[in-house]
Amino acid sequence: SVYVSDGSRSDTQSLTVKIRDKNEAPVITSNRGNSKTVYVTENSPTYTTVYDVDASDQDGDNIIYSLGGTDRSSFYISSYGAVTFKNSPDYENDSRYSLTINASDGSLRDTQYLTVNIRDKNEAPVISGGNHKSVYVSENIPTNRIIYDVNASDVDRDGITYSLSGIDASSFDITRGSGNITFKSSPDYEND
Description:
Strand order of the largest sheet: 4-11-10-7
Structural class: mainly beta
Order of helices and strands: EEEEEEEEEEEEEEEE
Number of strands: 16
Helix content: under 10%
Radius of gyration: 35 Å
Largest sheet: 4 strands, mixed
Oligomer: single chain
Number of helices: 0
Strand content: 35-45%
């Protein structure tokens, strides 16, 4: 009610104030703030959730999640806000990704910046040429002749040491630092 008075007489008016609803932007509720940093170990499976975005909308509108930023093409985001890699991350190729996560009601949005740091994982050395190899040598070759040179690499650049195992390992020598294989005794076809 509004009252107006001149000191001796007054008048009154009823006033109703009505609030019009206004569409408000969704709010990202997971890890409040403008940015978030997460850590993922390299070679994690592609279905592993890197980050789970939660958002709410006061108006009850459906929330649509999307990705932006420099590295958005390396990730998927599900309809419920789960961020996953498209391909398994490899520290040696890329150790940091930058994303923008958007939660939208179709017209307004909230944004969060996400940095994904990849942790290095020690990986096994790889022998080039596959897991099985056949080598042919003539009998009676000298023991100092290299019959096979094993080539291996390590993406972590760790030092590589070569050794032998198996039923006939005692018949051969291998240079621990270079992978050169030689016979301990000159081979004789008639014996083996």
